[in-house]
Structure formats: structure tokens, C-alpha cells
Amino acid sequence: MGKKYRELFDLIEADGQAKQYFDKLPDYVQETLCQRAGRVNSFESLQDYAQNLTRGDN
After folding, report:
1. Can you say whether residue 56 is alpha, beta or left, with left for phi > 0 and alpha for psi between -120 and 50 degrees?
2. How far apart are CA 55 and CA 4, in angstroms?
3. CA-to-CA separations, 40 to 11, 30, 58, in angstroms, rounded
4. Which pLDDT tens digit goes with each residue over 17-54?
């Protein structure tokens, strides 16, 4: 399990890998994640949320 952060914004500021991942996500996913920033506290939770939001996009 990776390092935990207070929220999404702290995560993408401190973790370059998480920032790159976030920047590649579709705009609607980024917006939803920003609205739920307090629930995203690790790179793993960022990936989980993004995968749930993009499920069915294929």
C-alpha cells in the first residue's frame, strides 16, 4: 500500500506518478475526482476511483 495523503490535491502535488496519471484522465473524470478530493488519499485510491468512473467507456 502506498503513502496516504490528506486529499487528492496533496497527492498530485507530492507524487509525480499520481500527477501524470491524473493529467491523462478524461476531463469529466478529473472534474469528478476534484469534487470528491477528500476521498482520494493514495495513488491506489486514485486509480480505483478513475477505473470505476471510466468503466463502460470502451
Report:
1. left
2. 25
3. 8, 12, 24
4. 999 999 999 999 999 999 999 999 999 999 999 999 99
